[in-house]
Design brief:
about 240 residues, mainly alpha, elongated
């Protein structure tokens, strides 16, 4: 049983009916409450995000959209995880985190946790500012955290939020995975007729940066040999694309 449901084990039938009535009272009137919470609530507070999502699930029951225990757990967990990512990302962007802090974050949350915090900068819609993406991309290249998702999913997820003027993201993929893995992914996505104009422009941006020899580092840490270009650093590269 879900640990936050243990309190209900001893409820009598009359008490359980009282619980259902309370859920209904809230559910039918919860829209305005949720609107206020969304407007004024901190978006980077993990505990608040979980509570907020639980309220939305309760309102869903009253609106004819019930959830199973497994669905509830996954939904609430994701809300808390997303808020935690925002908290760490905001702290980094505000200049309150240094490279050593990120290494500590990796020790506590693992490679995947660190990757999610940094990579989520490139998947926001509307996109985050270029300066924020450049900073997170630099950390990606320095720390090279490993992702749990497959490479194609990651590249596709970045197509709507990545600022094509930021070289660090394609350089990270090239250094971490190698062109032997990255090139087929880009070719496959390029053949996808469902991509939007914005996503196709991002694919062209990947191609331009990856054809550049600037910023390359030998060795691929997440699978496959990287092409050896012999020049390090992130300066230069293709012209900016608006």
């Amino acid at each position: 049983m879900y640990k936050y449901a243990l309190w209900a084990q001893g409820l009598t039938q009359e008490q359980f009916m009282g619980l259902l009535c309370a859920v209904g009272e809230y559910g039918y009137r919860g829209r305005k409450v949720l609107q206020l919470l969304r407007r004024y609530a901190p978006r980077d507070d993990r505990a608040f995000a979980r509570a907020m999502m639980a309220l939305e699930v309760l309102a869903g029951f009253a609106a004819g959209r019930p959830s199973t225990e497994d669905q509830m757990r996954k939904t609430v967990f994701k809300a808390g995880s997303d808020a935690q990512d925002r908290m760490f990302r905001n702290k980094i962007l505000a200049g309150r985190s240094k490279l050593q802090d990120l290494r500590i974050l990796r020790e506590h949350y693992g490679e995947a946790g660190l990757f999610d915090v940094l990579f989520s900068t490139f998947t926001q819609d509307p996109p985050l500012p270029r300066s924020a993406q450049a900073m997170m991309g630099t950390y990606l290249r320095k720390l090279k955290p490993c992702a749990t998702e497959e490479l194609g999913s990651l590249v596709q997820a970045s197509l709507r939020g990545w600022d094509v003027r930021v070289a660090q993201l394609p350089y990270y993929f090239r250094e971490a995975y190698g062109m032997e893995l990255l090139r087929p992914v880009l070719d496959r996505l390029g053949a996808d007729a469902s991509l939007s104009a914005r996503e196709r422009n991002a694919l062209r941006g990947y191609d331009r940066w990856l054809r550049s020899r600037r910023g390359a580092e030998p060795g691929a840490s997440n699978g496959g040999p990287a092409e050896r270009f012999g020049i390090s650093g992130v300066g230069g590269g293709p012209p900016s694309v608006s």
